[in-house]
Amino acid sequence: MAGLKELRTRISTVKSTSKITSAMKMVAAARLRRSQGLIGKSEFYNHNLLSCANRVIYELKQEEEATGQEVNWPKMMKDNPNAQNYLLLVFTSDRGLCGSYNAGVAKEAARRIEELKAEGKNVSIYCVGKKGRDILKSRYGDLIIKTKEGVAAKGAKYYEASDIGYDVLDAYHQEKIDVCEVIVSRFKSAISREIVDEQILPLKIEEFEYNKLHLPTNVVRGAFYEYEPDKMSLLEGMLPLIFRGVIFKAVVHSQASEHGARMTSMDNATRNASDMINKLTIKYNRIRQSAITTELTEIISGAEAL
Q1: What is the pTM of this model?
Q2: Which residues, listed in sequence order, are joined to residue 194 by a DSSP beta bridge?
Protein backbone atom coordinates (compact mmCIF):
# COMPACT_ATOMS: atom_id res chain seq x y z
CA MET A 1 0.00 0.00 0.00
CA ALA A 2 2.99 2.31 0.39
CA GLY A 3 3.30 2.36 -3.40
CA LEU A 4 -0.29 3.57 -3.72
CA LYS A 5 0.33 6.41 -1.28
CA GLU A 6 3.41 7.55 -3.20
CA LEU A 7 1.50 7.48 -6.48
CA ARG A 8 -1.40 9.49 -4.99
CA THR A 9 1.07 12.12 -3.77
CA ARG A 10 2.83 12.27 -7.12
CA ILE A 11 -0.45 12.57 -9.06
CA SER A 12 -1.54 15.40 -6.78
CA THR A 13 1.79 17.18 -7.28
CA VAL A 14 1.65 16.88 -11.07
CA LYS A 15 -1.93 18.18 -11.09
CA SER A 16 -0.85 21.24 -9.11
CA THR A 17 2.03 21.84 -11.52
CA SER A 18 -0.35 21.48 -14.46
CA LYS A 19 -2.63 24.18 -13.03
CA ILE A 20 0.35 26.54 -12.66
CA THR A 21 1.65 25.96 -16.20
CA SER A 22 -1.86 26.34 -17.63
CA ALA A 23 -2.30 29.67 -15.85
CA MET A 24 1.14 30.86 -17.05
CA LYS A 25 0.18 29.94 -20.60
CA MET A 26 -2.98 32.05 -20.43
CA VAL A 27 -1.11 35.03 -18.96
CA ALA A 28 1.58 34.78 -21.67
CA ALA A 29 -1.12 34.58 -24.37
CA ALA A 30 -2.80 37.76 -23.08
CA ARG A 31 0.51 39.63 -22.95
CA LEU A 32 1.42 38.35 -26.41
CA ARG A 33 -1.74 39.85 -27.90
CA ARG A 34 -0.86 43.26 -26.42
CA SER A 35 2.70 42.99 -27.72
CA GLN A 36 1.50 42.12 -31.22
CA GLY A 37 -0.69 45.23 -31.25
CA LEU A 38 2.28 47.33 -30.17
CA ILE A 39 4.43 45.93 -32.98
CA GLY A 40 1.92 47.15 -35.56
CA LYS A 41 1.67 50.62 -34.01
CA SER A 42 5.43 51.07 -33.69
CA GLU A 43 6.00 49.97 -37.29
CA PHE A 44 3.55 52.58 -38.56
CA TYR A 45 5.50 55.31 -36.71
CA ASN A 46 8.89 53.99 -37.85
CA HIS A 47 7.81 53.66 -41.47
CA ASN A 48 6.68 57.28 -41.60
CA LEU A 49 9.99 58.47 -40.17
CA LEU A 50 11.98 56.31 -42.57
CA SER A 51 9.94 57.48 -45.53
CA CYS A 52 10.57 61.15 -44.65
CA ALA A 53 14.29 60.58 -44.11
CA ASN A 54 14.62 58.64 -47.34
CA ARG A 55 12.94 61.46 -49.28
CA VAL A 56 15.40 64.00 -47.83
CA ILE A 57 18.40 61.78 -48.62
CA TYR A 58 17.09 61.24 -52.16
CA GLU A 59 16.81 64.97 -52.83
CA LEU A 60 20.19 65.72 -51.24
CA LYS A 61 21.79 63.16 -53.56
CA GLN A 62 20.07 64.73 -56.53
CA GLU A 63 21.48 68.13 -55.53
CA GLU A 64 24.90 66.52 -55.13
CA GLU A 65 24.76 65.21 -58.68
CA ALA A 66 23.48 68.50 -60.06
CA THR A 67 26.01 70.78 -58.32
CA GLY A 68 28.97 68.41 -58.11
CA GLN A 69 29.46 69.37 -54.45
CA GLU A 70 29.81 66.42 -52.09
CA VAL A 71 27.24 66.32 -49.29
CA ASN A 72 28.65 66.28 -45.76
CA TRP A 73 26.42 63.59 -44.25
CA PRO A 74 25.65 63.55 -40.48
CA LYS A 75 28.00 61.52 -38.30
CA MET A 76 25.26 59.01 -37.50
CA MET A 77 25.25 57.99 -41.19
CA LYS A 78 28.98 57.97 -41.89
CA ASP A 79 30.65 54.60 -42.27
CA ASN A 80 34.03 54.30 -40.59
CA PRO A 81 36.31 52.13 -42.75
CA ASN A 82 38.65 51.77 -39.78
CA ALA A 83 35.96 50.81 -37.28
CA GLN A 84 37.58 49.07 -34.34
CA ASN A 85 35.21 49.33 -31.38
CA TYR A 86 31.96 47.38 -31.59
CA LEU A 87 29.04 47.45 -29.17
CA LEU A 88 26.56 44.56 -29.16
CA LEU A 89 23.08 45.22 -27.79
CA VAL A 90 21.82 41.81 -26.65
CA PHE A 91 18.08 41.56 -25.92
CA THR A 92 16.88 38.73 -23.67
CA SER A 93 14.32 38.38 -20.87
CA ASP A 94 14.59 38.81 -17.11
CA ARG A 95 12.78 35.54 -16.40
CA GLY A 96 13.10 31.97 -17.56
CA LEU A 97 10.50 29.29 -18.34
CA CYS A 98 10.42 30.31 -22.00
CA GLY A 99 12.13 27.38 -23.67
CA SER A 100 15.28 28.03 -25.68
CA TYR A 101 14.48 31.70 -26.29
CA ASN A 102 17.27 33.18 -24.13
CA ALA A 103 19.80 30.47 -25.00
CA GLY A 104 19.27 31.05 -28.72
CA VAL A 105 19.93 34.80 -28.48
CA ALA A 106 22.99 34.25 -26.27
CA LYS A 107 24.33 31.66 -28.71
CA GLU A 108 24.09 34.13 -31.60
CA ALA A 109 25.77 36.80 -29.47
CA ALA A 110 28.64 34.43 -28.62
CA ARG A 111 29.05 33.58 -32.31
CA ARG A 112 29.24 37.24 -33.27
CA ILE A 113 31.66 38.03 -30.43
CA GLU A 114 34.04 35.30 -31.54
CA GLU A 115 33.75 36.47 -35.15
CA LEU A 116 34.66 40.06 -34.25
CA LYS A 117 37.49 38.99 -31.95
CA ALA A 118 38.93 36.88 -34.78
CA GLU A 119 38.97 40.04 -36.90
CA GLY A 120 40.91 41.86 -34.18
CA LYS A 121 38.02 44.11 -33.12
CA ASN A 122 37.32 45.41 -29.62
CA VAL A 123 33.94 44.18 -28.42
CA SER A 124 31.72 45.43 -25.60
CA ILE A 125 28.31 44.05 -24.62
CA TYR A 126 25.21 45.91 -23.43
CA CYS A 127 22.76 43.35 -22.04
CA VAL A 128 19.07 44.27 -22.04
CA GLY A 129 17.65 41.54 -19.83
CA LYS A 130 19.13 39.62 -16.90
CA LYS A 131 19.17 36.20 -18.57
CA GLY A 132 21.52 37.31 -21.34
CA ARG A 133 24.01 38.56 -18.77
CA ASP A 134 23.74 35.37 -16.72
CA ILE A 135 24.49 33.19 -19.75
CA LEU A 136 27.28 35.33 -21.22
CA LYS A 137 29.12 36.36 -18.05
CA SER A 138 30.93 33.04 -17.62
CA ARG A 139 32.83 33.49 -20.91
CA TYR A 140 32.52 37.20 -21.63
CA GLY A 141 32.02 38.82 -18.24
CA ASP A 142 34.88 41.26 -18.85
CA LEU A 143 33.16 42.52 -22.03
CA ILE A 144 29.80 43.35 -20.40
CA ILE A 145 29.74 47.10 -19.76
CA LYS A 146 26.11 47.42 -18.64
CA THR A 147 23.00 45.39 -17.92
CA LYS A 148 19.53 46.91 -17.99
CA GLU A 149 16.87 44.90 -16.16
CA GLY A 150 13.13 45.39 -15.89
CA VAL A 151 12.67 46.62 -19.47
CA ALA A 152 9.07 46.03 -20.63
CA ALA A 153 8.24 44.42 -17.28
CA LYS A 154 4.73 45.89 -17.53
CA GLY A 155 4.64 46.27 -21.29
CA ALA A 156 7.11 47.99 -23.62
CA LYS A 157 7.48 51.73 -23.02
CA TYR A 158 9.08 54.18 -25.46
CA TYR A 159 10.98 56.01 -22.71
CA GLU A 160 12.80 52.77 -21.84
CA ALA A 161 14.01 52.48 -25.41
CA SER A 162 14.97 56.17 -25.34
CA ASP A 163 17.12 55.61 -22.24
CA ILE A 164 18.99 52.80 -23.98
CA GLY A 165 19.31 54.94 -27.11
CA TYR A 166 20.78 57.85 -25.15
CA ASP A 167 23.38 55.55 -23.58
CA VAL A 168 24.46 54.22 -26.97
CA LEU A 169 24.43 57.60 -28.75
CA ASP A 170 26.42 59.19 -25.93
CA ALA A 171 29.14 56.52 -26.31
CA TYR A 172 29.01 56.92 -30.10
CA HIS A 173 29.41 60.69 -30.10
CA GLN A 174 32.24 60.42 -27.57
CA GLU A 175 33.88 57.98 -30.03
CA LYS A 176 33.97 55.19 -27.45
CA ILE A 177 32.32 52.95 -30.05
CA ASP A 178 32.42 52.98 -33.85
CA VAL A 179 29.65 50.49 -34.63
CA CYS A 180 26.59 49.28 -32.74
CA GLU A 181 24.79 46.05 -33.57
CA VAL A 182 21.60 44.66 -32.09
CA ILE A 183 21.07 40.95 -31.48
CA VAL A 184 17.41 40.21 -30.91
CA SER A 185 14.74 37.62 -31.55
CA ARG A 186 12.45 39.00 -34.27
CA PHE A 187 8.83 37.97 -33.73
CA LYS A 188 6.99 36.28 -36.61
CA SER A 189 4.25 34.31 -34.88
CA ALA A 190 3.51 32.67 -31.54
CA ILE A 191 5.52 29.62 -32.60
CA SER A 192 7.98 31.23 -35.00
CA ARG A 193 10.89 33.57 -34.23
CA GLU A 194 14.08 34.56 -35.99
CA ILE A 195 17.26 35.62 -34.22
CA VAL A 196 18.85 38.49 -36.13
CA ASP A 197 22.08 40.47 -35.89
CA GLU A 198 21.69 43.95 -37.42
CA GLN A 199 23.87 47.04 -37.53
CA ILE A 200 22.01 50.07 -36.17
CA LEU A 201 24.92 52.53 -35.99
CA PRO A 202 25.96 54.04 -38.32
CA LEU A 203 22.40 54.21 -39.65
CA LYS A 204 21.93 53.03 -43.22
CA ILE A 205 18.54 54.57 -43.98
CA GLU A 206 18.33 53.37 -47.56
CA GLU A 207 19.02 49.74 -46.55
CA PHE A 208 16.02 49.44 -44.24
CA GLU A 209 13.60 46.86 -45.62
CA TYR A 210 10.75 49.39 -45.79
CA ASN A 211 12.81 51.87 -47.82
CA LYS A 212 13.93 49.16 -50.22
CA LEU A 213 10.27 48.48 -51.01
CA HIS A 214 9.18 52.13 -51.10
CA LEU A 215 11.74 54.03 -53.15
CA PRO A 216 11.22 57.81 -53.47
CA THR A 217 10.63 59.17 -56.97
CA ASN A 218 10.79 62.56 -58.63
CA VAL A 219 7.73 64.71 -57.99
CA VAL A 220 5.50 65.43 -60.96
CA ARG A 221 3.12 68.13 -62.25
CA GLY A 222 4.91 70.98 -60.49
CA ALA A 223 4.54 69.47 -57.01
CA PHE A 224 7.33 70.14 -54.54
CA TYR A 225 8.41 69.50 -50.95
CA GLU A 226 9.17 72.43 -48.67
CA TYR A 227 11.63 71.94 -45.82
CA GLU A 228 12.04 74.03 -42.67
CA PRO A 229 14.65 75.05 -41.70
CA ASP A 230 16.54 73.06 -44.39
CA LYS A 231 17.03 69.50 -45.61
CA MET A 232 20.22 68.74 -43.65
CA SER A 233 18.90 70.16 -40.37
CA LEU A 234 15.73 68.13 -40.78
CA LEU A 235 17.72 64.96 -41.48
CA GLU A 236 19.96 65.53 -38.45
CA GLY A 237 16.86 65.96 -36.29
CA MET A 238 15.20 62.79 -37.58
CA LEU A 239 18.21 60.46 -37.20
CA PRO A 240 18.07 60.23 -33.36
CA LEU A 241 14.30 59.63 -33.58
CA ILE A 242 14.84 56.84 -36.12
CA PHE A 243 17.56 55.32 -33.96
CA ARG A 244 15.38 55.30 -30.85
CA GLY A 245 12.57 53.87 -32.98
CA VAL A 246 14.88 51.01 -34.00
CA ILE A 247 15.66 50.36 -30.33
CA PHE A 248 11.95 50.40 -29.45
CA LYS A 249 11.25 47.97 -32.28
CA ALA A 250 13.86 45.62 -30.80
CA VAL A 251 12.22 45.95 -27.36
CA VAL A 252 8.70 45.10 -28.60
CA HIS A 253 9.92 42.23 -30.79
CA SER A 254 11.96 40.83 -27.90
CA GLN A 255 8.96 41.09 -25.59
CA ALA A 256 6.59 39.45 -28.09
CA SER A 257 9.11 36.67 -28.76
CA GLU A 258 9.48 36.05 -25.04
CA HIS A 259 5.72 35.78 -24.48
CA GLY A 260 5.31 33.57 -27.55
CA ALA A 261 8.11 31.28 -26.38
CA ARG A 262 6.71 31.13 -22.85
CA MET A 263 3.20 30.40 -24.10
CA THR A 264 4.49 27.54 -26.27
CA SER A 265 6.70 26.22 -23.49
CA MET A 266 3.90 26.26 -20.89
CA ASP A 267 1.50 24.64 -23.37
CA ASN A 268 3.98 21.80 -23.87
CA ALA A 269 4.49 21.51 -20.12
CA THR A 270 0.73 21.32 -19.53
CA ARG A 271 0.36 18.62 -22.20
CA ASN A 272 3.23 16.62 -20.71
CA ALA A 273 1.72 16.94 -17.24
CA SER A 274 -1.62 15.66 -18.55
CA ASP A 275 0.09 12.67 -20.17
CA MET A 276 2.00 11.94 -16.97
CA ILE A 277 -1.19 12.12 -14.90
CA ASN A 278 -2.89 9.61 -17.22
CA LYS A 279 0.06 7.20 -17.02
CA LEU A 280 0.32 7.51 -13.23
CA THR A 281 -3.44 7.04 -12.84
CA ILE A 282 -3.35 3.85 -14.93
CA LYS A 283 -0.43 2.57 -12.87
CA TYR A 284 -2.23 3.48 -9.64
CA ASN A 285 -5.41 1.64 -10.72
CA ARG A 286 -3.43 -1.45 -11.73
CA ILE A 287 -1.62 -1.62 -8.40
CA ARG A 288 -4.88 -1.02 -6.52
CA GLN A 289 -6.67 -3.68 -8.57
CA SER A 290 -3.82 -6.11 -7.93
CA ALA A 291 -3.97 -5.40 -4.18
CA ILE A 292 -7.75 -5.96 -4.09
CA THR A 293 -7.43 -9.20 -6.06
CA THR A 294 -4.75 -10.44 -3.67
CA GLU A 295 -6.91 -9.65 -0.64
CA LEU A 296 -9.93 -11.41 -2.17
CA THR A 297 -7.80 -14.47 -2.93
CA GLU A 298 -6.59 -14.59 0.67
CA ILE A 299 -10.16 -14.29 2.00
CA ILE A 300 -11.45 -17.05 -0.28
CA SER A 301 -8.51 -19.30 0.58
CA GLY A 302 -9.11 -18.73 4.29
CA ALA A 303 -12.83 -19.50 3.96
CA GLU A 304 -12.12 -22.76 2.15
CA ALA A 305 -9.62 -23.78 4.83
CA LEU A 306 -12.31 -23.44 7.46
Answers
A1: 0.87
A2: 186
